[in-house]
Design a protein that fits this description.
The protein is mainly alpha-helical. The chain contains eight helices and no strands. The protein is 60% helix and 0% strand. The longest helix is centred in the middle third of the chain and has 17 residues.
Length: 153
């Protein structure tokens, strides 16, 4: 692997980011935005904002990592979806990889978002995992959003 690989091309090699293997299941950005909103309470507008609140940054990082893992989009394209550049996407991918290895709550949240966006899990798995959510929505409102999301996926 060339250490000077330009990660900004539109179809990077699956080996471009060590430790992150691209999956075959394609995820759309809209599904991922919806899954992140259902789990974290942060919507597309917030993900694209300049705000740097910790929970929002984590949601944005998860978005970047899952887009990289589940699509063939280049790093620059993924970055444009959250108003960031390709270097931020690289940092996000590495950060998510590290956090999923050391933080069980973060890993649970990551797995729930990934499962919802790829239609691999249901609302019952999410509730069983007891995922902590943030945002202005009540628990009942969040459950309704997740149920709606699961029904359209």
């Amino acid at each position: 692997m060339d250490s000077n690989k330009d990660y900004t091309d539109s179809n990077p090699s699956p080996m471009a980011m060590p430790g992150m293997v691209r999956q075959e299941k394609e995820v759309s950005a809209n599904k991922l935005y919806a899954a992140i909103e259902a789990i974290t309470g942060h919507n597309k507008t917030q993900l694209r904002s300049k705000l740097r609140e910790r929970t929002l940054v984590e949601a944005r990082q998860i978005f970047c990592a899952l887009m990289y893992e589940h699509t063939e989009q280049g790093l620059a394209n993924i970055g444009s979806l959250v108003n960031r550049d390709h270097t931020t996407v690289i940092h996000s991918i590495k950060t998510v990889k590290n956090l999923t290895e050391i933080d069980s709550k973060f890993k649970t949240k990551y797995n729930a978002i990934e499962g919802l966006s790829t239609s691999n899990i249901s609302i019952y798995h999410i509730l069983a995992d007891g995922i902590e959510t943030v945002g202005n929505a009540t628990v009942d409102e969040r459950i309704q959003k997740i149920k709606q999301l699961v029904s359209i996926l």
